[in-house]
């Protein structure tokens, strides 16, 4: 019949092409936009000199801890106190995180990384703060300067960049154990030792302060006796 003839003459619609047996490769995930590390509204510009001045480039090798030296030079006529903060205390260590820099002098800060996996790019950074202090304040503990009410007079944030191709600056290889868990235990033990050393330093500083106070009291008593 005519209907059947027309039906046979009409080409069937083209079927959509099937992907190859391997499937279509998924598109790479979109790159994250760069972190906005600019100072927030109201934050003063950083006034000291840093080396490196931009990115903190840390070599990464599985099972190895590495470090970078960050140098702060005081280009102002006044003593300065600094503070360094990081985005993850489980990955990074900063030694010392607080301190003082006299005019024209340079302080070297060591930044360590001990991550068991290559950290995510464009995620971590270091914030460096500084504020002016007196010569007497610079003789005391820096933590007394940086209390909750303290306001920095200069702020800068530096991006942490990891490279797995550069030769690492090895400061202590993690023991070659059979499991990742045991390696993590080794990292934790190293951090515990660092905390012990920090506490020892703090106790030494406290003893110095106590001795100073004792000497002041003794001098006061001597003056009282002289007046009598």
TrEMBL record:
InterPro entries: Ig-like_fold (IPR013783), MSP_dom (IPR000535), PapD-like_sf (IPR008962). Keywords: Cytoplasm, Cytoskeleton. Residues 47-164 form the MSP domain. Residues 1-42, 172-228 are annotated as: Disordered. The keyword Cytoplasm applies. It comes from the Eukaryota. It holds the Pfam family Motile_Sperm. Residues 175-228 have a biased composition (Basic and acidic residues). PROSITE patterns: MSP. The keyword Phosphoprotein does not apply. Central component in molecular interactions underlying sperm crawling. Forms an extensive filament system that extends from sperm villipoda, along the leading edge of the pseudopod. This is Major sperm protein. It comes from Pristionchus fissidentatus.
